[in-house]
Every structure is written in C-alpha cells, then in structure tokens.
C-alpha cells in the first residue's frame, strides 16, 4: 500500500511540474509600430506604452521561467545531466526573450528619432 501512495505522490509531483511549465506564456510583441514619418503624437505615445508593457511582460516571463526551473530543481526528481540541460534551456529562453524586447525597443526608437526629426521646431 505504501508503494502505491509513493507512486501516486511521484506521479502528482510530475504532473505538477508539467503544469508549472505550462504557466510561463511568452508575451506577444506590440504589433504595427507606427512610422515616425507619418505618425501622430498620440500614436507615438501609444506605441511607447506598448513597448514598455512588452518589456515588463518579458521581465515577468523570465521571472516565471526562473521560478519554474527552481520548482523543478527543488522537486529533487532531476538528475545532474537533466539539471544542466534545463538550466541551459532556461538561459536560451531568457536570452531570446531579452533579445526580442531589445529589437522591439530599437525599432521603436528608430521611429521615434524619425518622428522627432520630422516635428522639429
């Protein structure tokens, strides 16, 4: 009977770990950043807000990934080889997310420079 209970506990732990992995949802970047040559002030402000929100969403996503990894490691069900693999995967996901956030910010900043140049007074 004790083995059945232990098996159920390990199964539930594995299911919980799998469910925890599904909780980190990659955020969508802002769509259609305005063209600085034709955008209005309101469009540029809205785009800036969207870019800042995306950056915050990426930070939350990366925090989620770190917490997810910590939960898996704390479960004790991960051997050293799998641990190294999971840590490397988490670093790759983190770096890719940060790179995308930077690319979105760079595209916005480029259009902001165009907007400012066009609207110089």
Entry summary:
By secondary structure, the chain is mainly α.
Describe this structure in words.
- The protein has a domain at 40-121.
- The termini are far apart.
- 77% of the residues lie in helices and 0% in strands.
- The longest helix has 39 residues, at 80-118.
- The radius of gyration is 21 Å and the shape is elongated.
- It is mainly alpha-helical and 121 residues long.
- It has helices at residues 2-21, 41-74, 80-118.
- The protein contains three helices and no strands.
| N- to C-terminal distance | 82 Å
Model regions low in confidence, pLDDT < 50 over at least 5 residues = 6-20
Helix content: over 70%
How many helical stretches? 3
Mean pLDDT: 85
Strand content range: under 5%
**How would a crystallographer describe the biggest sheet?**
none
**Total number of beta strands:** 0
Categorize the overall geometry: elongated
Given helix and strand content, the structural type is mainly alpha
Order of helices and strands: HHH
Question: For the CA atoms, what is the radius of gyration?
Answer: 21 Å
Topology record:
Layout: H1 2-21, H2 41-74, H3 80-118
Features:
121 residues; mainly alpha
């Amino acid at each position: 009977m004790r083995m059945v209970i232990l098996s159920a506990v390990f199964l539930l732990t594995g299911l919980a770990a799998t469910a925890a992995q599904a909780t980190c949802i990659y955020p969508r970047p802002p769509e259609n950043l305005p063209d600085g040559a034709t955008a209005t002030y309101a469009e540029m402000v809205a785009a800036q807000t969207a870019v800042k929100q995306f950056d915050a969403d990426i930070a939350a996503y990366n925090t989620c990934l770190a917490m997810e990894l910590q939960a898996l490691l704390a479960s004790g069900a991960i051997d050293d080889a799998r641990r190294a693999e999971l840590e490397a995967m988490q670093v790759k996901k983190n770096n890719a997310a940060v790179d995308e956030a930077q690319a979105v910010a760079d595209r916005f900043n480029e259009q902001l420079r165009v907007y400012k140049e066009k609207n110089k007074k």
